[in-house]
Amino acid sequence: MKKLASILVFALTFSTQAQRKRNQERPQLTVEQHTDLAIKKMTLALDLSEKQQNRIKPIIASKMAERKAFMEKRKEAIKEKKRPTANEIYAIKSKMLDHQIALKNNMKEILNKEQFEKFIKIQKKRKIKGKKMMRKMKKSKKEKKVK
Predict the structure, then answer these.
(1) pTM of the prediction?
(2) Average pLDDT for residues 100-124, to the nearest whole number?
(3) Region labeled Disordered — which residues (predicted)?
């Protein structure tokens, strides 16, 4: 009986420490840091020239700034437990698609044909990976609700 009690105490202690680590926030990178990392990743993947890097940098910087602003706005809405209306969701999705079209057109101008094809393949892989992650998150949320 004492062994069972000590095992339960150990298990509870371990699980609460693991939960605490998961809930800690990671340090946030600045927009410039995100931009530099994105440019370096693209340079490695697409073998960009210095001129191409300089042309892409402002595009990526504006994209990162908008993403950060959107995420902060979304965090505030979550804290207030405010859900977007159907019109707001439509506007957000429409704006996002417009940005994706503009990015694709800009990249088509900057990159050569081979680089652009590779860029499209990378974008598709990221989209698939993102969908898988969303499914995983939804599944884990459902499991938590059941418990």
Answers:
(1) 0.68
(2) 93
(3) 127-147
